[in-house]
Design brief:
CATH class: Alpha Beta
Order of helices and strands: EHHHHHHHHEHEEHHEHE
Distance between the termini: 53 Å
Number of strands: 6
Radius of gyration: 20 Å
Strand order of the largest sheet: 1-2-5
Length: 273
């Protein structure tokens, strides 16, 4: 017998506590999963770049130091991308930016602003940024243009590598099973960019949050804490956000598991207070 299925957790960029079910974007990929070996194969990473890379234990992972060290290397790769990338890779990068522009531009700005704000949640940002006032966004894009460009490069590299991995899996007869959480994190580009799709107050805080009734796993039910969808607004928009989300997910996997179905069938609406 040989392996036929490979199931993975959600692969979005993680925030506080590194949970794959509380990501900073439902569309973006996690740069922590970018392969250094593949970067070498594409001539984007050189041995000199790794001279100061620390040695880590092999039997456990301390995410903080590992992510910090990897981030330093990846930032260098992103800065040098235009100089090191082949013409073919540059053309693929340009197509990616065009094809994914509907989420990529906003996510790259969101990530750059989180860095500027000490990784604080967007609800605590200065009011003009929190409310996405056009003048404030334009000024932020200009101020953080280099950081935004680097974020976009890293997203391209993640998807470039993942789609290569998926093609290799297909050749070996392996289907990839992805995981899509029904709800998204409040501190995410999704909620910051589309507040009208969620139950939020005038300041952007959730008015109600998600949970589920008692079941086999919990005799008292569960309080998840994610903002709830305004389904009437989604309906008015032809479920465009959900369609885009599912289409994006299906570009990465052969099969998608919704985590979890009870959230669709019988979720609780809990007052946020």
């Amino acid at each position: 017998m040989s392996q036929k299925l490979w199931q993975v957790l959600p692969m979005g960029p993680t925030g506080y506590a590194d949970s794959p079910y509380q990501t900073l974007s439902t569309f973006a990929g996690n740069p922590a999963l970018i392969s250094f070996d593949s970067l070498r194969d594409d001539s984007l990473l050189q041995e000199a770049d790794l001279q100061d890379f620390p040695t880590f234990p092999e039997n456990y992972v301390d995410f903080g130091p590992v992510l910090a060290a990897r981030s330093k290397i990846l930032q260098r790769v992103a800065r040098e991308f235009d100089r090191r990338a082949t013409p073919i890779l540059k053309a693929a990068w340009m197509r990616f930016c065009e094809d994914e522009s509907k989420w990529l531009e906003d996510y790259a700005l969101f990530a750059a602003l989180k860095d500027e704000q000490g990784n604080g949640p967007w609800i605590d940002w200065p009011e003009p940024l929190r409310r996405r006032e056009p003048a404030a966004l334009a000024a932020a894009r200009k101020k953080h243009s280099a950081a935004i460009q680097q974020r976009k490069v890293l997203q391209f590299l993640f998807f470039h590598q993942w789609l290569s991995l998926r093609e290799e899996a297909r050749k070996r007869g392996i289907s990839l099973i992805g995981d899509i959480p029904i709800f998204v994190a409040h501190d995410s580009a999704d909620v910051w960019c589309h507040p009208e799709l969620f139950f939020l107050d005038s300041n952007g805080s959730p008015t109600v949050i998600a949970g589920v009734p008692p079941d086999y796993f919990s005799a008292t039910g569960q309080r998840w804490g994610n903002p709830l969808y305004r389904w009437s607004v989604h309906e008015d928009q032809g479920y465009a956000w959900w369609i885009a989300r599912l289409r994006s997910t299906l570009n990465l996997y052969d099969i998608v598991r919704i985590d979890h179905f009870r959230g669709f069938a019988a979720n609780w609406e809990i007052p946020a207070a």
